[in-house]
Design brief:
Elements lengths: L19 H24 L2 H31 L4 H22 L8 H24 L20 H9 L14
Helix pairs in contact: 1-2, 1-4, 2-3, 2-4
Length: about 180
């Protein structure tokens, strides 16, 4: 079979895709949102606070969708991850544009607060991902196999070498006496 779904002939990494950063990112976003929403509500108004809440939900959903799509593409073939990431990014950008455009200027939530929450949330999630990558031992190629340790020769071979005076063993030198 040729084309997009042709089988790979080279070695394929069997390492599972680790999506544990999604849990860490969601918890970080939840913690920041739990503080930002009431503070924004008290200082700027509850329409702004609702914008912060919706913005945080959008960013969290977008990062989770991206992680899952890229992991799914990587399970099929590692070369599909970049197109999956770029395609998902394009779809998310269009969805965000549609959401922001559909909201009325003087509606039930503040579009500007939502947009700022999206920016801050994206920066927060990016920081979480960077820290997650920096603190993990990740291989960009399969790690080499451990070296094989030669097994010691059987006992019968050792006694034969000793009887011959160790002629085959460079560490045993015959002595004259």
């Amino acid at each position: 079979m040729s084309g997009l779904f042709a089988e790979r002939t080279g070695p394929r990494s069997e390492a599972p895709w680790d999506l544990s950063f999604l849990r860490v990112g969601a918890l970080a976003a939840l913690a920041v949102t739990a503080v930002a929403v009431p503070v924004t509500g008290l200082l700027a108004g509850w329409a702004d606070a609702l914008g912060v809440l919706v913005g945080a939900a959008i960013v969290t959903a977008f990062f989770c969708v991206s992680g899952l799509v890229i992991a799914w593409a990587g399970k099929i073939d590692d070369t599909f991850t970049l197109p999956a990431a770029l395609g998902t990014f394009a779809v998310k950008a269009l969805v965000l544009y549609a959401v922001l455009s559909a909201l009325p200027a003087d509606g039930w939530l503040d579009r500007r607060a939502l947009a700022w929450a999206v920016i801050v949330g994206a920066l927060l999630w990016s920081a979480v991902q960077l820290r997650w990558v920096w603190t993990r031992q990740l291989y960009y190629v399969s790690p080499p196999s451990p070296p094989r340790v030669p097994s010691p020769p059987p006992p019968s071979t050792r006694t034969a070498d000793a009887q011959r005076g160790g002629a085959d063993d460079p560490e045993i030198r015959p002595t004259r006496g």
